[in-house]
Amino acid sequence: MVSEHASPLAALGGVDAGGQNVHVAALSEALARRGHLVTVYTRRDADDLPRRVRINPRLEVVHLPAGPAAPVPKDELLPFMGELAEGLQRDWEHRPPDLVHGHFWMSGLVALAAARPGPAGVPIPVVQTFHALGTVKRRHQGTADTSPFERRWLEPTVGRRADRIIATCSDEVVELKAMGIPAERISIAPCGVDLDLFPGSAPADRCDRTHRILSVGRLVPRKGVDVIIRALSLIRAAGLRDVELLVVGGDGDATATEADSEVRRLLAIAAEQGVRQQVTFRGQVPRQAMPGIVRSADAVVCTPWYEPFGIVPLEAMACGIPVVAAAVGGLKDSVVDQVTGLHVPPRDPHATAGALIRLLSEQGLRQDLGRAGQQRARALYSWDRVAAETEAAYLQTLTEVSAGTPRGVPGRLHPVEGAAL
Ligand code: UDP
What we know:
Rossmann fold, globular
């Protein structure tokens, strides 16, 4: 596994640490449980990190130098990817892997560069999961997208050159085909949920308000927490006044979070909407505490502008908590409207308020949706099942490559001729 910015060992909730970290960690563990030897390569972002961390006899995390041994926003990492690819090649001198799986477009670049054939050999097969696509991000974020300009052609090139792409939802397949990737080279394997951790044993304490609604995620504008705050104000106007919105995520604990510009923006909206007293920012919550917090809520609300997959709704479903979900991206696959939650259009505070009023007013409906959600999470989204689907995509790739099926088409991988990538 190559996961340049998203270490499986990182704390979650910060701007660049969320679903991809969870995905790489849990998928790697599940593949190791199936008997594979898994190495996760990630960037060394602190100088006290050991080079190799053994998680269990079949799984290790390797920190490789790529730029400064300090936090660097992921959108500024491209210049260091050549160094990361060289580190991989050095690590593979004695024991190359059977297959490389890149996570995020820059890891795909690294995987393809490092997997190039040596003087005697053939390239190592490369499977790619994008987690997020630049085309979608640009469509929604416009000039606010801080991705490097080169992503516009490097990401599709990774898609065309990799031997197989694993999409995490059906919506992504449409986007990948629009990028010029043939359907026969795309597999689907969703994200999963840790069913050993969720639902946990007991709900966390909650404040003494009648209802709690919960938002969990990285605190970035595209997660749409402002939509929930505006909905809270409409819920209040409709007469449900005793509702708390708990917002989990951010770069540190609750106090540190107040220094965050996104929190200040959201607090200003809450004040303007007259619901400041009803909104609590909890800051970053460690994994072990998450199930209790999810279970303390009457509903989990996910109203992103767009969502490549979205693990949080699965965590809510695994806890038996109904989900109000914007009908975008992976949420259209994971949350079944009227069965495990309620769909609302994206960026629509009125529809979000309507769905929440219905849920908060009908305990029976909450219980029905919660029960169905738990069944769905258990039946379809265990990491063991996701690992089996991923393994099937790996085996198909290895079979095709050894049978000489034409591989991904060539294309320029680096804007600078002769550069390391
Ligand atoms: N998360 C966490 N602590 C936090 C905030 C988030 O453990 O303070 C976890 C959350 O439970 C979920 C992941 O981070 O497992 C977020 O994944 P998701 O796919 O929903 O969003 P992404 O970060 O990929 O946009």
